[in-house]
Amino acid sequence: MASSGGSAGAVSADVSAVVSQYSGQAALDLPPLKAKPAPGKHLVYLADTAAPLTATIGQDVTAGAKELGWSVTTETYAGDPASLATAMAQAVSEKPDAILLSGEDQSHFTKALQAADAAGIPVFVGGVPNTPTTLAEGGPAGVSLGNNFLTTEGKIAADYIIKASGGKANIAIVTVPDQKTLTVENAGFTKELAAQCPACTVTTINAQLQQIGNGLPQQVVSELQANPSVNYVFYPYGDLSIGVPAALQTAGIKVNSVASTASAGTYADLKAGRMVANLATSTEVQAWLEVDLVARYFDTGKPALDDIVPIQILTDADDSSATLPVSPSDYAAQFKKLWQVG
User: Fold this and answer.
1) Quick check: 36 and 7 in contact, CB under 8 A?
2) How many CA atoms are closer than 13 Å to the CA of 72, on its beta-carbon side?
3) Cα–Cα distance between 300 and 46 in angstroms, integer?
4) With 50 as the cut, is the pLDDT of residue 116 above it?
5) pLDDT tens, 319-338?
6) Could you give the CA distance from residue 320 to residue 114 in angstroms, rounded to a whole number?
7) How far apart are the first and last CA of the chain?
């Protein structure tokens, strides 16, 4: 467990300001489209069965697209590049107007992306640190929740932990090392810790998506038994925590768990007292942002980038909702106004 020198217990005004800023309703700051989108488009959404949150996002993509008079078909893959390539090829064969997916860096499906581009089918990705390009350049035509979002999400999580711990945090990050999305978020997290809490310590627990709920809970238990000084666990992708807080509780390990990319499961753990905070970007908002990318692309004919930070920190002080609250609560009305269909 690496650490660096500095005085524990100090929490800067900057840290407190960030926590305060993101403790209320999330902001949705986008310009309106130039014209109402034409109806009748067909989209294909690719859902990763190893990352359960993507299936929920896919359902909300369908709901958002319906508001524009568009239809959506969902294809699934098993979380590995080979099955993703197969799913992408199937999507291309359906000749849709666009293909959407979440959380997959373009390096995981480069050839499949080139095939889609060659077929004239734009691909849109949510939650990745990629840059949107034209079809001729061979990249995604639109990116939502990109590099700025991911870096800032890591910073917000770090600031919450610094403030909550009074600058006395020994943190274990549970992450997937080959997911660039998480690498970028973790970099934002550790950079903020180094700047604002040099006495805080960080260790990393590496996992694979296929271990979610299957082997990972016991791995985290074993790691924390070997490192009893850890008092915070951070999950940059909330579903990595599936089964872990309960396993820690069973093992008698008391630790403060914080998850970003919150899900129904992380929120249930928050309400049950097995977590202390969720950083939530509502799946509805994530999904409608991906639909928004498609609408903006066809509105302007140019690559689309919706790299905003619609995050809300949820704690046991504001978990009165029975289910994971949607933030902003009026997201649908806001998007429909942007799309000129409301």
Assistant:
1) no
2) 26
3) 25
4) yes
5) 678 889 999 999 999 999 99
6) 47
7) 53
Locate 251 and state its tokens: 């093992």
Mean of the pLDDT values across residues 80-99?
95
- Do 16 and 9 form a contact (C-beta atoms < 8 A)? no
Cβ count near 111 (within 10 Å): 11
Residues 207, 213, 219, 223: is their CA dihedral positive or negative? positive
The 8-class DSSP code of residue 233 comes to E
Using the structure block, give the residue that is written with the tokens 């872990």. Answer: 244
d(CA 47, CA 51): 8
pLDDT digits (tens, 9 = 90+) for 218-238: 999 999 999 999 999 999 999
- Rounded-to-integer distance, Cα 185 and Cα 237, Å: 9
Strands lying side by side in the sheet with 312-315 = 201-206, 170-175, 232-235, 256-260, 277-280, 312-315
Taking the C-alpha atoms of 226, 229, 235 and 241 in order, what is their torsion angle to the nearest 10 degrees?
A: 50
331 phi, psi to nearest 5 deg:
-55, -40
Average pLDDT over residues 79-107: 94
Which tokens sit at 157? 């999580």
Neighbours of 327 (CB within 10 A): 21
Is 48 strand, coil or helix? Answer: strand
Residue 39's CB is within 10 A of a number of other CB atoms, namely 10
The SS3 of residue 315 is strand
What is the structure's pLDDT at 5? 33
Beta-carbon count within 10 A of 53 CB:
23
Coil, strand or helix at 77? strand
Residue 214 CB-density burial (10 A; 0-12 exposed, 13-18 middle, 19+ buried) = exposed
Amino acid at 330: D
Residue 250 has which token pair? 């069973």
Q: Over the Cα atoms of the chain, what is R_g?
A: 20
